[in-house]
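User: Hey, my collaborator sent me this sequence without any context and asked if I could get a structure. I don't really work with proteins. Can you help?
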Amino acid sequence: MEIINYSEEHKIFRDSLRKFLDKEVVLTFEEWEEAGIVPRSVWKKMGEQGFLCTSVPEEYGGLAADFSIPSSSPKRRRKVVSQV
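Assistant: No problem. I've predicted the 3D structure and written it out in structure-token form, which is a compact way to encode the shape of the chain:
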């Protein structure tokens, strides 16, 4: 049961992030943990996909989203970490 009534925009963001994490992070997460660093290329891809700084105004390249956009996907991030 969700405490917040997420909009369709939230669900789209969450699904997109889930797909991104599955494709770009899950298989190499353990390697990054050992190295103690996430490759810059991953951060760039996350930025290009709009997963970083979601509350930044559109005129500065952000989504101008409310605070609940990044909070709509904590379960998926925990799942990624728990899979390694």
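In plain terms: The chain has a mean pLDDT of 78. You can pass these tokens on to your collaborator as they are.
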